[in-house]
Amino acid sequence: MPANASPGLRPLSGKGPSVLILGSFPSVISLEKGEYYANKRNNFWQIMESLFGIDRDLPYGRRIAELSNHGIALWDVISGCSREGSSDSGIKDVVPNDIPGFLRENPTIKCIALNGVTGAGRWFKKIYGDLPEYPDITVVVLMSTSPANAGYTYEEKLSDWKKIVGFAGRKD
User: Fold this and answer.
1) For the structural domain made of 6-167, what CATH number should be given?
2) For residues 8 and 25, is the Cβ–Cβ distance under 8 A?
3) What confidence category does residue 117 fall into, taking pLDDT thresholds of 50, 70 and 90?
4) What's CA 95's distance to the chain center, in Å?
5) What are phi and psi of 52, to 5 degrees?
6) Which contacts qualify for 152-155: CB closer than 8 Å, 24 or more apart?
7) Residue 166 neighbours by CB distance under 10 Å
8) Is the N end or the C end of the chain the one with fewer CB atoms within 10 Å?
């Protein structure tokens, strides 16, 4: 990793995930707290609550366990990078995560959900293309849950994120 690059967060996954949600790279708040989507203004946990009944006010560990129960894994396209603040537009010196390796280790993945067109969607396409070696995996680029994506209402974001519901499934 370049000397000026910050490392991201580790993947979070239970046994046999069916959906891999990828962000671009964690926000400054998420990196400080060591938690995915730690910024309270980010709609991610509110959307997970609406889609899967995971109370966004639960302690972080319980929310992650509930996501895992629904077959959902979390990670980022980028393992490390240089960036001022939290904006995806400022990402430089990119070190990608080993998404193909994660998919080999988790052959149960049926859907990759990319959180945002200009962040995760753009970086995933640039680094991995269309993943031709995984033709059975559906890749969907969804509206960013970031507070920077203020051009869309919560309801519009939620409607877009409903695309992943059919791929997820309760495990208990």
Assistant:
1) 3.40.470.10
2) yes
3) very high
4) 16
5) -125, 5
6) 154/43, 154/46
7) 12
8) C
